[in-house]
Amino acid sequence: MQHFSKVILITALSTSLWACGGAGTQSGSRQDSTATAFTPAKPAGTVQVSFEQDTDTPKVKIHFAIADKTIDKSFELPLAQDMDSEDLYRTVWDQPTSCYIGVLKNNRGTRYYHASQGEDGGLKIFQVGTPPEAVWHYAEGELGLGKATNKSKLTDHYKRNVTSGKIIADFIVRLEPAASKDSVQLYTEFGGLNERKTLQVPGGYAPKIQPTEDPEHCIFGLQRDDGFDPVLDIKVENAKLILKELGRVQ
Question: What is the pTM of this model?
Answer without folding.
Answer: 0.52
